[in-house]
Design brief:
By secondary structure, the protein is mostly helical. The chain is 79% helix and 0% strand. The chain is built from eleven helices and no strands. It is globular and about 50 Å long. It starts with a helix and ends with a helix.
Amino acid sequence: MIPIETLAIIFGLSSALSWGTGDFVGGCAARRTSAYSVVLVTQIMGIITFPILAFAFSESLPPLNNLMWGAFAGFFGAAGLIALYMGLAKGKMSIVAILAAVISVIIPVIYSALNEGIPSIFKITGFIFAIIGIWFIVSMNVESNLKAKYLEYPLFAGLLFGLFFISIDNFSATAIYWPLTVSRTTAFIMLTGFIMLTKAVSKPTSYVIVIVIIAGLFNTGGATFFALASGAGRLDVATILSSLSPAVTVLLACILLKEQLASRQWLGILFSLAAIILISI
């Protein structure tokens, strides 16, 4: 029988693999259809999956205020995904994924510092690494064709994801799947209303629909594996392992899309990945 600590590690790595793959596939889908369509499908997958998991694990309904935090998480999470997928579609996936990830980790740390005091030396070191990494990534040079105007997408996505994690932090310790169900339902309603008002979604081809569904499955799988990892082991271990998801996106972009980065940008990516790990400790 596999030890519980080993299971937590397996689930945490599976979360990173699933989230990272979902971001890559979602970015590819957003290049062929509206990012809103991609995000909408991810919410539908969650609406179907999370209640099943709640019943399977006999999870009881949490208090109303916790469900309200789930609604906030749905709004921030959906808006963050739209910004991320638009950034992945318009800019280099390697850079967009890393910047969004770094910002999304920094925001909750600042929130914790304001409420719980100065962070540890690991987190402070992570801040320094993040600043260095971002500077290397966004520095313009003759080897890079990075568009400065596209940086607004990953930065905005990171801010929204940070608020998403803060909202999740306010969930009940005994309820995960029901608040996540409310989160996805809220996001679905919000996105559906927005799409109907703006008609921002064009009808995708059957091939693109398959890609969008795959992106939704991986995104939902990432959240599910993260919940399993945090339940099976320490939350900090689950956070550190799942935060490696941008490395998966970067690897897939380099292998499948043949993205080429300047040496300075690779150095920035390494600093940023180290920052994610340090800040999550």
